[in-house]
From TrEMBL, chain A:
SUPFAM superfamilies: P-loop containing nucleoside triphosphate hydrolases. InterPro entries: AAA+_ATPase, ABC_transporter-like_ATP-bd, FeS-cluster_ATPase_SufC, P-loop_NTPase. The keyword Nucleotide-binding applies. Keywords: ATP-binding, Nucleotide-binding. Belongs to the ABC transporter superfamily. Ycf16 family. The gene is sufC. It comes from the Bacteria. Pfam families: ABC_tran. It comes from Maribacter cobaltidurans. This is Fe-S cluster assembly ATPase SufC.
From TrEMBL, chain B:
Signal peptide: none annotated. It comes from the Bacteria. It comes from Maribacter cobaltidurans. Belongs to the iron-sulfur cluster assembly SufBD family. Residues 21-168 form the SUF system FeS cluster assembly SufBD N-terminal domain. This is Fe-S cluster assembly protein SufD. The gene is sufD. Pfam families: SUFBD_core (PF01458), SufBD_N (PF19295). Residues 175-405 form the SUF system FeS cluster assembly SufBD core domain.
């Protein structure tokens, strides 16, 4: 479904991704781990289409289509979703109105009419119940004054509303206490199906206890230096990243 | 003949049409002398450094319209807040239109300055309030005083509140090639009284209009005034708005200024706090493009202790638009425990747009809280990317961010239908349909 081949990306002439290869098939959960500064967030943002990064070599393909010339919003329409590490605050625009805009823009791009109001309300109700989100929360301004946990839960709520093919969760576990982590992880697990895929980007193994990956990749200095099953995450938790760095240097 | 000379010679013609024996005319004559001496302000004056009236002075404005013009309600309905019932004081080319207006004398006076300045029953109020807070020195104000004859007169006695908001609408038909208007408004709100006023100036053609308006507002003890200025005029219409507010103990006056259109807009908004526990609020949203120019000059004079003032102006400037914000706060030595806040935030959405922003604080008391801040920036790229990843196209995403930026200024608008109207104007101005009512 998502195929990344020999991906090189740079910002201000500084190369950050140095040849990434990754294939994600429907129904799979991939975890990308790695030390700070290894390029994890950059990889997520390049997949989502951030224009600040220049792709110098290689490609990102979704269902066989090269996304090189595709704008971020069009990638979203095609089914890519990025949950932000630091979601942006939008005062004066409620969560509900924001979701209406997002969903209807996506429908417009597909040549569909706006979603009827009652259908929209039902969708919002179902998804917010699934994520144990209080209705009052939905009328608040998007992310404004939200706690870290509320922001992340709101990201997963948006994920649930938009039902993407490929969901990338960038450090979704950071800033979450254990209860919030469980709710967020349960939400992701409920949304998982044989037709979609999840890429979990994380520094720690903690989240992977709840969202169990099929594959774990370790990113170091812009390259995937090791891939394995979920047991690799345990190993990293135990040994840290240093042994991998040494292995990569050899 | 430049505009100053034309005005001076027009004053003689003006005197043929008013009662020169009336005491008000002494005030006019005195004001005219001041204007003759001072003339129009030039860019050499600090307060006019960024706003030039030169080209306006070269325009051959008609000082009085040649004939009375009429308009049908349906032609101008959209300029009214027609969703709700309001009192209306409407002027067409500076002349009162009884046909489009709805005035009242039922417990409150919502009527005309021309009546107030001539009829004996209003004499007492005029003696006490007319030209009492307006500057006797500032040249454009004195020019207006000299020609003061028509405008809105609003008197709310003790403990009263009109049943509905009041709209003051100035329409220009364009029947004159270029027309100068000088409306003069007086608003008096007595103890525990309250009023809501919406003021709008609208030119209906691309013929040039210059409005030099003066509004005096008096709020007595516990009085409440909400004043909304909608400045969304044609690109050939210029407005100089001089508003003077005198507040007594515990009164609350809020002025919202929405500047979305016009050739040149200059707002001189002056608050004088003559009492304790007063709250003065000035809020503004400015969204301009093309070569439009707006200049917000605010003054809050904290004269007595224990008062507050709040200023929050947001500006979005595109194309070659230019903006000025100059916020002056004076805290007298006696005015201890003053809380004065001032915020001016701007976004430039084009390389050619400019903004000059300047806080000016003169604080002579030592136990006060005063804060000010101004920012000039671009839209946050990270925020744009965030919205795009949710499927919202760049243009709509930019509009949503600009809307969010300006939004908190709207939270204090107390007429819901007006808030909706302003939101629509903002959405139009930003050129988007966001799929929900902002």
């Amino acid at each position: 479904m998502l195929k990344i081949s020999n991906l090189h990306a740079q910002v201000d002439d500084k190369e950050i991704l140095k040849g990434i290869n990754l294939e994600v098939k429907p129904g799979e959960v991939h975890a990308i781990m790695g030390p700070n500064g290894s390029g994890k967030s950059t990889l997520a943002e390049v997949i989502a289409g951030k224009e600040e990064f220049e792709v110098t070599q290689g490609s990102v393909e979704l269902d066989g289509e090269n996304l090189e010339e595709v704008a971020p919003e069009e990638r979203a329409h095609k089914g890519i979703f990025l949950s932000f590490q630091y979601p942006v605050e939008i005062p004066g625009v409620s969560v509900t109105n924001f979701m209406k805009t997002a969903i209807n823009e996506s429908r417009k791009a597909k040549g569909l009419e706006d979603m009827p109001a009652n259908e929209m309300l039902k969708l919002i109700r179902d998804k917010s119940e699934m994520l144990e989100i209080d209705r009052k929360f939905l009328s608040r301004s998007l992310n404004e004054g939200f706690s870290g946990g509320e922001k992340k839960r709101n990201e997963i709520f948006q994920l649930a509303m938009l039902e993407p093919k490929v969901a990338i969760l960038d450090e979704t576990d950071s800033g979450l206490d254990i209860d919030a982590l469980r709710i967020v992880a349960n939400g992701v697990n409920k949304l998982k199906s044989k037709d979609n895929a999840v890429i979990v980007i994380t520094h720690y193994q903690r989240l992977l206890d709840y969202i169990v990956p099929d594959f774990v990749h370790v990113l170091h200095d812009g390259k995937i230096v090791k891939s394995g099953g979920k047991e690799l995450a345990m190993e990293l938790e135990e040994k840290g990243y240093d042994w991998l760095k040494q292995e990569a240097a050899i | 003949m430049d505009l100053k000379d034309k005005l001076i010679s027009s004053f003689m013609a003006f005197e043929n049409n008013v009662d020169v024996e009336h005491p008000v005319h002494d005030v006019r004559a005195e004001a005219m002398k001041n204007f003759e001496k001072k003339g129009f302000p030039s860019k050499k004056e600090e307060a006019w450094k960024y706003t030039s009236l030169n080209s306006l002075q070269k325009t051959n404005f008609s000082i009085f319209p040649k004939e009375e013009n009429a308009l049908e309600y349906k032609e101008v309905k959209k300029y009214f807040l027609h969703e709700i019932d309001t009192y209306k004081i409407v002027f067409i080319d500076g002349i009162y239109s009884s046909y489009l207006s709805e005035t009242t004398h039922d417990g409150v006076d919502i009527c005309l300055m021309s009546s107030a300045l001539t009829k004996p029953m209003y004499k007492q109020v005029i003696d006490v309030y007319f030209n009492k807070v307006a500057s006797k020195d500032e040249s454009l104000t004195t020019l207006n005083t000299a020609f003061s004859r028509e405008g809105a007169y609003i008197y709310i006695p003790k403990n009263k509140m009109p049943k509905k908001p009041i709209e003051i609408l100035h329409l220009a038909t364009g029947n004159e090639a270029s027309l100068m208007l000088q409306p003069r408004n007086l608003v008096v709100v007595e103890e525990n009284a309250e009023v809501q006023i919406i003021e709008r100036h609208q030119s209906l053609t691309t013929n040039e209009v210059l409005t030099n308006s003066v509004t005096e507002i008096f709020a007595a003890e516990n009085g409440i005034v909400d004043y909304y200025k909608i400045q969304n005029d044609a690109s050939t219409a210029s407005l100089i708005d001089n508003t003077y507010i005198n507040q007594k103990d515990k009164s609350v006056v809020k002025v919202h200024t929405f500047s979305f259109g016009g050739k040149l807009i200059r707002n001189n908004l002056n608050f004088y706090q003559n009492g304790e526990y007063i709250d003065s609020t000035m809020k503004g949203v400015t969204i301009l493009g093309d070569k439009q120019h707006v200049d917000h000059h605010t003054l809050v004079h904290h004269i007595e202790p224990n008062c507050e003032s709040h200023q929050d102006y947001k500006g979005i400037y595109g194309d070659s638009a230019t903006g000025v914000f100059n916020g002056k706060i004076i805290v007298d030595k006696i005015a201890q425990k003053t809380n004065a806040f001032q915020q001016n935030n701007n976004i430039l959405v084009s390389d050619k747009a400019t903004i000059n922003t300047k806080p000016q604080l003169e604080i002579f008391a030592d136990d006060v809280k005063c804060s000010h801040g101004c920012t000039i920036g671009q839209l946050d790229e990270e925020a744009l990317f965030y919205l795009q990843t949710r499927g919202i196209p760049k243009k709509e995403a930019r509009a949503l961010l600009m809307y969010a930026f300006a939004n908190n200024v709207l939270s204090s608008v107390r007429i819901p239908e007006l808030k909706t109207r302003i939101n629509k104007l903002i959405a139009n101005k930003l050129g988007v349909n966001l799929g929900f009512n902002l």
